[in-house]
């Protein structure tokens, strides 16, 4: 499958066909500074722009899903579970727990530190909650009496 030399392939075509792409730019280099170099460089910019879009899409697809507490799930003494992990915005935390035993409250840092539930805090109760991280600090506690004090709390910093 060889494209005729005088036909300029579309940037998308070049992106999808590395051999064609290589062949195309080789022919441009052979032409040197002469005719065709302007359209060649604009094609390179078009390919670069498309690559950026594709890589951005790949970045979104690569959001990571974390199970809080791993196999133990969302329970007491899970407070150190985030240590050593790298989180980023749009990553998802999965909280697995018995819905009659625990819950998940998303709150601010001060409320987190004092284990108090602020008015209007978002409370999750399904037992299998998927929460998407926002950039910056994300705080969660269980607000059943004594549970937060028992280390049922996590602070996650999302880059
Ligand atoms: Cu609890």
Automatic annotation (TrEMBL):
Residues covered by the Phytocyanin domain: 64-159
Gene Ontology molecular-function annotations: electron transfer activity; metal ion binding
Domain of life: Eukaryota
Classification via CDD domains: Plantacyanin
Entries under SUPFAM superfamilies matching the protein: Cupredoxins
InterPro entries tied to this protein: BlueCu_1_BS (IPR028871), Cupredoxin (IPR008972), Phytocyanin-like (IPR039391), Phytocyanin_dom (IPR003245), Plantacyanin (IPR041844)
Classification via Pfam families: Cu_bind_like (PF02298)
Keyword Transmembrane helix: yes
Gene3D superfamilies from the UniProt entry: Cupredoxins - blue copper proteins (2.60.40.420)
Keywords: Copper, Disulfide bond, Membrane, Metal-binding, Transmembrane, Transmembrane helix
Protein name according to UniProt: Plantacyanin
Lineage of the organism: Eukaryota, Viridiplantae, Streptophyta, Embryophyta, Tracheophyta
């Amino acid at each position: 499958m060889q494209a005729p030399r005088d036909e300029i392939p579309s940037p998308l075509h070049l992106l999808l066909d590395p051999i064609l792409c290589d062949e195309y730019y080789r022919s441009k280099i052979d032409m040197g500074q002469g005719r065709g170099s302007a359209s060649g460089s604009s094609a390179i910019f078009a390919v670069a722009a498309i690559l950026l879009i594709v890589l951005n899409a790949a970045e979104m697809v690569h959001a990571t899903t974390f199970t809080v507490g791993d196999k133990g799930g969302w329970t007491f003494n899970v407070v150190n579970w985030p240590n050593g992990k790298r989180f980023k915005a749009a990553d998802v935390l999965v909280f697995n727990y018995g819905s009659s035993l625990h819950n998940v409250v998303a709150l601010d840092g001060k409320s987190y530190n004092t284990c108090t539930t602020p008015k209007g805090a978002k409370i999750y109760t399904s037992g299998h909650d998927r929460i998407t991280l926002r950039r910056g600090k994300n705080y969660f506690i269980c607000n059943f009496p004594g549970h937060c004090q028992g280390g049922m709390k996590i602070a996650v910093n999302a880059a």
